[in-house]
């Protein structure tokens, strides 16, 4: 298994952009290897839907068969092709396939938070204006990245030790960038 899969081609970008496929990749990290039926049970989706998404991920090279875990020649067991997946920002289609869906997701969360009277304590939506030097911004970016990695490692370790039916897939989106010098949003 290679350490990092650099997501660059359009097929891989489309594959990783889908929330269900992201969930499948996450479950495979926890389980190590799994059949479509195992993933269907873990995720709570029909096995035929999971099978479709597995084929898309396999075609993109993001998962591979693990025949050593199969019960017989017809049994299809899957595992991740890499330990981690990195979307290269300069890849063609990355804005369309990855960035826009992530921003739509964030917008939906913001609208839902405003539409409900109670705020879930297991969610965070924060926008802060910061005045930083480039060095401070670099330090903050590293701290946030380290925090996310630490929690990802902790969650994975705990999920492997003791599966919990209350465990859910969470997604974090972090953006730190300078605003336009004219005070604009820099939005397209």
TrEMBL record:
Transmembrane segments: none annotated. Residues 11-104 form the HTH arsR-type domain. Pfam families: HTH_20. SUPFAM superfamilies: Winged helix' DNA-binding domain. InterPro entries: ArsR-like_HTH (IPR011991), HTH_ArsR_DNA-bd_dom (IPR001845), WH-like_DNA-bd_sf (IPR036388), WH_DNA-bd_sf (IPR036390). CDD domains: HTH_ARSR. It comes from the Bacteria. One of its GO terms (molecular function) is DNA-binding transcription factor activity. This is ArsR family transcriptional regulator.
């Amino acid at each position: 298994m290679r350490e990092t899969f650099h997501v660059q081609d359009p097929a891989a970008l489309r594959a990783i952009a889908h929330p269900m496929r992201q969930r499948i990749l996450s479950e495979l990290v926890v389980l190590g290897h799994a059949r479509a039926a195992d993933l269907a049970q873990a995720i709570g989706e029909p096995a035929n839907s999971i099978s479709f998404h597995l084929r898309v991920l396999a075609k993109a090279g993001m998962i591979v068969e693990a025949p050593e875990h199969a019960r017989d020649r017809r049994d299809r067991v899957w595992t991740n092709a890499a330990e981690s997946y990195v979307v290269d920002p300069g890849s063609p289609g990355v804005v369309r396939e990855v960035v826009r869906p992530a921003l739509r997701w964030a917008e939906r969360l913001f609208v839902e938070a405003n539409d409900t009277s109670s705020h879930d304590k297991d969610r965070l939506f924060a926008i802060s204006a910061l005045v930083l030097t480039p060095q401070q911004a670099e330090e903050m970016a590293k701290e946030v990245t380290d925090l996310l990695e630490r929690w990802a490692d902790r969650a994975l370790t705990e999920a492997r030790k003791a599966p919990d039916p209350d465990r859910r897939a969470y997604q974090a989106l972090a953006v730190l960038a300078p605003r336009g010098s004219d005070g604009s949003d820099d939005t397209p």
